[in-house]
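Thought: the user wants the 3D structure for the chain below. I'll pass the sequence to the structure tool as-is, report back what it returns, then summarize two notable features.
Action: structure_tool
Action Input:
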Amino acid sequence: MTLQLKYTSDWNFEREHNIDDEVFQETYIDDKECEIESSNWKPIQAKAIEQFPYVIVDGTEKTHEVLKNDKSYIILGSIAVGAVELSNDGSKILEESNSGVNRYSIQYVPDNQVSQKIEDIIINIGNQRIKFEGKKHTDSTKTIVLNSKKNLMENLTALMSQSERKLADHLAKSYKLVFLDGPIVQPSKTKDNIVGYIKGLQRYYISTKKQLLLPQLKSGERTPIFRITSEYGNKLSWFLCIKKFDENFFDFTAGLMRIEVTENPRNKKMIQQAISYADFTTAIFPSLASERFRDPRSPHNLTPVGELEKRIKHLIGDKEIIDRGIRSYIYAQNKEQ
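Observation:
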């Protein structure tokens, strides 16, 4: 018997670096944690919601070059983050939220050389000087081999995620609701009006019995809220279908997201607040889902985020020009020795 193959997403997997993937270690929560909103585990449809301005925070990273000295790998990379505001008047990129481009030269440093200083790398492109700030690697939870390209690239991703969280935290003071591309990594240190959305599903958390509901979700439907507990703080989460694909060709996960928010123990109305956020995403997110002809990462890469990414990538600069500057730097350095 030939196994039937289906797409797990509507976009080319190789086109997107999985910056928002969580560390995969499947564990299931108790079914009691799925009865926070309702004891009836069935799809919840979109409801009429209060409209108000909100923002989505996103970032982009670019690894320009992977180098190596006698013993260690080095990567030269750039990150930039920004935000887009959405309201009844449409969407607009918050130019004041752009923190500019941060560039890093990240190098693996052995434990016995922790005092070693990592030099900045400065390249010249025409009349412009671009500095890659020297940084030592940090241990990755995803990679066993620390002196590796993968570990250093994950270090760059971590720096971008930190910048995204910092910007989200700042904007949460001014906006009722802030969406962050990726999971809430430190719930106890994250404001309860910052909502993370996870595009690439590696963990389900809910039991295999509860998971039977997920393929039944139609566009604009969600699961009831469930609780994810951890030593870093609890989160309230739900699955949302932003687009329903032909089941003959696509796995049900192709149009599915998981969304989560910190469960603030000091907020007595936290459950009601999370339900209002869940209803908001159910009503809004399907309309923001991108189309294949516009974005190869559809539908998960939300349309306003796609526009923000174009702006951020422009700030990072032209890949070929920067790569040419790096090659000239390496050539000049080796020529002097």
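Final Answer: Structure generated. The chain has two domains: 18-52+178-301, 61-175. Residues 18-52+178-301 form one domain.
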